[in-house]
Design brief:
Blueprint (H helix, E strand, L loop, with lengths): L1 E5 L10 H14 L1 E5 L11 H23 L3 E3 L2 H16 L1 H15 L9 E3 H9 L1 H6 L8 E5 L20 H8 L3 E2 L18 H17 L4 E4 L2 H9 L1 H8 L7 E3 H8 L4 H14 L2
Parallel strand pairs: 1-2, 1-3, 3-4, 5-6, 5-7, 7-8
Helix pairs in contact: 1-11, 2-3, 2-4, 3-4, 5-7, 8-10
Length: 285
């Protein structure tokens, strides 16, 4: 069993409960233990630091300190959380003066210290590097037997934030899709931004970015898309019709979360898997 401190991200236990449901199935099927971190705060999602990066650093350092007290690395299913928290972790580790300033804040406010004895991990690289594709493949009960476009989420595509995968030409998602029985679709948009959180203030630009990613995946033969970023999923799924209107492109495609794809393949939530297959038949053409 592999064990991690669990940072689900704000949406996984809020507006995207399907992520949390699927995560619980994935860890059961793959013998992963996730330890909750009571009181862990929002990572900032790339927004908070625009107004007050010191506050964001202090909040994330506090989360790191909680994980350190548990003796564990942190696992998240969210590419935005992963990229944001990895950047802050690296900044704190590289800058001793800054780390001291943030630790002063932590000690005054909550009696904690951050030492840097942990790693930030995303579910995708844990599945590939810690669990292993062969192990996952052996546990597949419902092969994902249609072409799948993996979407990484731009924030985690930086050196060190996505395990040993290549930040510029990653392959972990494609290898995982293949291990789950699917056909991994190759398309350039898998590493491009869909404009979250720019959606909040540059909606048309974000919708054009989203439309380009979806239409390119569809043109490359994808029947569905799976996203490693629940925040990007808002653009790709909830705003899909709007993205089609703004971009003038064909954006009609079922979009699910990475943990759902794995959970379905392992035999969990079969009713949702049946619904997905119906969606693929209806709109995934």
């Amino acid at each position: 069993m592999v064990k991690f401190a669990y940072f689900p991200g704000c949406v996984a236990k809020g507006s995207a409960r399907e992520v949390e449901d699927a995560m619980q199935a994935v860890i059961k099927g793959l013998n992963i233990e996730l330890v909750e971190m009571p009181g862990a705060a929002c990572c900032g999602a790339g927004i908070m630091k625009q107004a007050n990066h010191q506050l964001q650093l202090a909040l994330n350092a506090r989360t790191f300190a909680i994980a350190e007290s548990q003796g564990l690395d942190v696992l998240t299913p969210c590419a935005t959380c992963q990229g944001n928290m990895y950047e802050d972790l690296k900044m704190l580790l590289d800058d001793e003066v800054l780390r001291g300033e943030i630790n002063d804040v932590l000690e005054r406010t909550c009696g904690m210290r951050f030492e840097g004895n942990l790693r930030m991990r995303h579910l995708l690289d844990v599945l590939v590097e810690d669990i292993g594709l062969d192990v996952i493949g052996d546990k597949v009960l419902n092969p994902i037997d249609f072409p799948v476009a993996g979407y990484y989420g731009a924030p985690m595509l930086q050196g060190g934030a996505n395990g040993d995968d290549d930040s510029f030409n990653p392959s972990y998602f494609e290898k995982l899709i293949t291990a789950l029985g699917g056909e991994a679709v190759e398309y350039d948009g898998r590493v491009k931004s869909v404009g979250f959180p720019a959606l909040l203030h540059q909606e048309k630009t974000a919708m054009r970015q989203t439309g380009a990613v979806l239409s390119e995946a569809k043109q490359a033969g994808a029947r569905i898309m799976a996203s490693a970023c629940p925040l990007s999923h808002f653009n790709l799924d909830t705003y899909q019709v709007q993205a089609g209107r703004v971009s003038g492109k064909d954006t009609s495609m079922p979009v699910i979360h990475l943990p759902e794809l794995v959970a379905f393949a392992l035999g969990y939530h079969v009713d949702r898997f049946a619904q997905l297959r119906t969606r693929v038949l209806v709109i995934g053409n």
